[in-house]
Design a protein that fits this description.
The chain is mainly β and about 300 residues long. It has a single domain, classed as Neuraminidase (6 Propeller), CATH 2.120.10. The chain is about 0% helix and about 45% strand. It has no helices and 25 strands. β23 and β24 form a beta hairpin.
Amino acid sequence: MAQEITATPAPTKTAPAPMLSTLQPTETLSSSWTPRPLPRAYTQDDLQVLVGNVQRPNGMLWYEGNLYTACNGDFTLYEVNAVTGQTRTLVYGIQNAHTFWVEPSGSSFDLWIPDFDTNRLMRVNQARQTPRPVVSNLNGPWGIAKLDDEHFLVSNIRSNDILRIRRTGEAEVFLDGFRAPAGIAIHEGFLYVVNNGSARRALERVQLSADGQPLSDPQPFVSGLQSASSIAIGSDGYIYFTYSLGARGIVGRVAPSNCADGCSNEQVETVVFTDLQAPLAGLTFSPDMRLFVHTIFRPEIYWLDLYPDD
């Protein structure tokens, strides 16, 4: 008999600091940054189960009080209340998604989703219409970031490149020469790339011009991490990412200003040392810095309040 899962609500704080209402993995935040220490490094014992009814969750994103996660077991995109865990089917037809981009659309919103299994960039709206392909013939699409009002960047983990894709579907190579690029993020004029296939090149970054053009080749940012995969920008100004230590999944972070000349794994601050099997496929935050995470191998979605005394 499967172990019974007891969900623990993830309450919204009563008086959060002023932050963005929508926290994207590629959000641009203020350039003024001051260190914000964690109370301590967290462990598996600190994680609490929000819900355990999505069979095989993969990518995950917080938006306006809900988590959106794709199940690669039943090809379903689910909407999960980030406080109660109440879950509903949003739409069928997303086979395997590692990351999402969400943007308001009138009174609703659209989700832009690289579908790894079908090699397409898909568009989904809250009306729960059938997902619409924007572009096909990608090569293991994984990460997505909004470059400007007309273009997205999408990483291809199989062809070691990043494409620039117009909303109307035209695609071209933006940068190449990576090592299995997975999660990507744009933050304060830099494109951050997680190389899943190289510990030495675990995280790299590329400076962007004001009009979104690369100004350099990929430069070292964080080295020495095994199987890095997900990346998210916290509203506290830190860059968070997942990687493995042996078989265990780890969430770490660095301050961008501290790694201007590159950081080693010894300079990475451990945020959560989990007992979950790597990779930690889903990583996202609410604006008040509740962390949500899961592994690809289990149905449970966990949460943790990083700053409980706020």
